[in-house]
Amino acid sequence: MINPTAVYVLWLREMKRFMRAKSRIIGALAMPLFFLAFLGLGFNRMMVPGMKGGVEYIQFLVPGIIGMSMLFSSTFAGLSVLWDREFGFLKEIMVAPVDRISIVIGRIAGGMTTALIQGMLLLGISVFLGFKVHSATAFLLAVVFMLFIAVTFIGLGLIFASKMKDMQGFGIIMNFVIFPLFFLSGALYPLENFPVWLRVLSYIDPLSYGVDGLRGALIGVSSFSLLFNLAVLLGFTFVMIFLGAYFFEKSESV
Amino acid sequence: MLAIDVKDLTKTFNGFKAVDHISFSVNEGELFGLLGPNGAGKTTTINMLATLLKPTSGTGFVSGNRIDLRRDKVRRSIGVVFQEPALDNKLTGKENLDFHAMMYGLDKEMRKARIKEVLELVELTDKSGTLVEKYSGGMKRRLEIARGLIHFPRVLFLDEPTLGLDAQTRRHIWDYIKSLNRKQKVTIILTTHYMEEADYLCDRIAIMDHGGFVALDTPENLKDILGGDVVSLEIEGHEDEVERRLGSLRGIKYAVRHGSVLSLTMEKGERRIPELIAVAQESGSEVTCVNLHKPSLEDVFLHFTGRGIRDQEAGRNERKREMIHRRSRRRG
To answer: What is the arithmetic mean of pLDDT over A194-216?
Structure first.
């Protein structure tokens, strides 16, 4: 069924493309870094109501910004099917004697790795800016959350990419899906400040559990328990990966 | 054994019949052409045979495997060169080939050997380490043809292989295609809207229009449908007698004389010229000039589709441009 060579080939392709696109890496890191720098500095002396236990704003912000970076790079990785369709390479992949599920897994593996590299770079830079990672366990737990966030949103990107014929709808997805997911996730502020009706929306945003989990893992402060966050995120991951694979399988490549 | 066997193949897009109940078969080792204007349904046909599109109704077999049921078997036995480039521009030529070979399950040794072979075949060995985005259009085409061949396909689909290429590169690619078919014994199905391409390359041609076939035969037979070749003789002396005697020869369909030039319509004109000259000389006349005009597929195409009936402006303009292009080349 699953063809390991095909998965490897697609992963390797993503790695080569990623390593060759230095400007892409810098571009992808720039926005989260700006958020981190300006919001972190701008709000540093402010007391944000609803925040637990005397945490500095920068400490609160870093996990949120890592979640943001994972959201963007993963969704784009899923949506990159659109680029392949635009440039014709999708046909080359689709005409190969390989199970569609192997193609989906290869794409997830590639997107997950690139998103994770970007998340790690961001974490590294944050440490340089004064963020503290307390233990190796905290770090490993954070990586687990990052992985699940990545797979979830690659799945989401795949769903959109399978439903769209070209790049026309990209701006709409950016403005009406990705940014709302980001703002609803509580990456920049505690969700406790939201009115109840808005909080309901936050609770169906997978990223809320990812960001809260990252916060729990990295700074030890979170709304839900780590285990709860992990379980809910895992549920989203399976649903998204299944739907992504399903719609990708159903889509026509020409 | 048949390389391709298609029965009542049909594809409908939102009620529009792109391909309408076509049936045909292609023998192994044949070079088969689908000729038609843009929008005739050629690419849709190829996409269905290559398992990228599901037929609305009807089906086909490629190397004995049904295209809608045994997709993986079909995929394994075919190579496809798409109309639009399907390369990864951010990879080198060699990487594109290597990834393809891995997807088709070739082991490392085999990959190395095959990549070297196909690169030599398309003369891209010294460019294999360059990123594909730096390639010219012709080089990309050649790389795609090389890629389509790596895994020893039994059937190779070429969708408009020379679209948008200059005359010199086109000629070059024609030669590759011909030698592939002859030397490597690959069955080739190609689509084109260039008459001369179909004429030069194909063993048999199906002329497509509005999703259906309007004719299917060898290029020679298709052209013979128009009544054959025109042989023009310039003669001196006894013109009336020569016209009478030549005009009554077996197989001469029309004889028309304008002054000293006698035009005769017949099949396989080139084989009749010696006989025509001999008869003219017997009648005491001297032949000073002979001209043979063979009808082109262009004439055949117009005969079958009736140009001007279609509202397909794009396709028509393209044909017009091509004719002007050809005319000016003929003069030059």
So the answer is: 95
Domain boundaries, chain B: 2-223, 227-293
What part of B 101-120 touches A (C-beta under 8 Å)?
A: 102-105
Q: Write the ipTM.
A: 0.88
The C-alpha atoms of residue B138 and residue A129 are separated, in whole angstroms, by 51
Instruction: Tell me the C-alpha distance between A203 and A228, whole Å.
Output: 13
**Chain B residues with CB-CB distance to A16 below 8 A:** 90-91, 95
Hey, are the CB atoms on B103 and A97 less than 8 Å from each other?
A: yes
The secondary structure of B247-300, three-state, reads HCCCCCCEEEEECCEEEEEECCHHHHHHHHHHHHHHCCCEEEEEEEECCCHHHH
Sign of CA dihedral A161, A162, A164, A165: positive
| pLDDT tens, residue by residue, B155-202 | 999 999 888 788 888 888 898 889 889 988 899 999 998 888 998 999
CA distances (Å), B192 to each of B95, B115, B195, in order?
29, 28, 8
Q: Which residues contact B14 (CB under 8 A, 6 or more apart)?
A: none
Encode burial over B259-296: b for 16+ CB neighbours within 10 A, e otherwise.
eeebebbbbebeebeeebbeebeebebebeeeeeebbb
Helix (H, G, I), strand (E, B) or coil at A106: helix
- Size of the A and B interface in Cβ pairs below 8 Å: 69
CATH topology assigned to domain B227-293: Alpha-Beta Plaits (3.30.70)
Residue in A with minimal Cα distance to B99: A9
User: DSSP code of B68?
Assistant: T
Residues in chain A within 8 Å Cβ distance of B99? 9, 12-13
Query: Which CATH class, in words, describes the domain spanning B2-223?
Result: alpha beta
Residue B323 has pLDDT above 50, yes or no: no
By CA distance, what is B51's nearest residue in A? A95
**Distance separating alpha carbons of residues A24 and B298, to the nearest angstrom:** 50
Mean pLDDT, range B6-19, rounded to an integer = 94
**Rounded average pLDDT over B125-147:** 93
